[in-house]
Specification:
By secondary structure, the chain is an all-alpha fold. It is built from three helices and no strands. Helix 1 (5-25) runs antiparallel to helix 2 and helix 2 (29-54) runs antiparallel to helix 3 (60-90).
Length: 103
């Protein structure tokens, strides 16, 4: 028995919108980073699902997902380096109190 496409899309939509909600409502930079990763993982699920159900003989969705995972890993490393640098200078990672990187 195969799981229908709508089930995968509902799971990906819940992941995506919970990531958007977390990114908008959180003030902690690490929580915002985790929300951004949740958004990127939801997009990966969309890529794989649409590839699997629309073009099962091709692997473009899988390759796009691998590319997004690689970009997300680089983005996470860069974001954590920035967060560590901000914490060292201000002893705080609340995004509303950080004013050094705005200009």
């Amino acid at each position: 028995m195969e799981i229908p496409m709508q089930c995968y899309l509902i799971v990906a939509l819940v992941m995506f919108f919970s990531g958007v909600y977390g990114f908008i409502t959180r003030r902690n930079l690490l929580a915002m980073l985790m929300s951004l990763e949740l958004i990127l993982n939801a997009v990966n699920v969309f890529f794989v699902v649409f590839n699997r159900f629309l073009f099962p003989e091709h692997l473009e969705g899988m390759f796009f997902s691998l590319f997004v995972i690689g970009v997300a890993a680089a983005e996470t490393a860069l974001a954590i380096a920035i967060i560590i640098n901000v914490f060292r200078s201000s002893k705080n990672i609340d995004n509303e109190e950080i004013k050094e990187l705005k200009y």
